[in-house]
What does this fold into?
Amino acid sequence: MLNALSRQLFTGESDLGYARPGRIAGSELLPTLNFIDQESGAYRPDAELEAGAATLGRGRDADIISYCGGGIAATMNAFVLMKLGYRNVSVYDGSLDEWSSDPAMPMEVGEPA
It folds into this structure.
């Protein structure tokens, strides 16, 4: 599971009004904004996208589920990963909006161990 939101939302320091702050338990952070040139609004060059994806330490055949708050930013991560040749990428369209509203679903706050 990859969280496409900011570090502040990932750790629960910031909250956009979801039922509970934080992230899906066990997920990793890969902020969508890292793939975007903030001045032009365009995706960064492929070499920079590749470097960002390499932080995952996963092969191109790994199962990856991208999520965010409501499924929008997650599609940007999925697009980039698929563009780079990752084959098993999906988007959790309900994302935190759905997950955080069910108290039975595990969530974490703070920096990962």
User: Anything to note?
Assistant: The chain has one domain: 2-108. The CA atoms of residues 51 and 106 lie 30 Å apart. The chain has a mean pLDDT of 95.
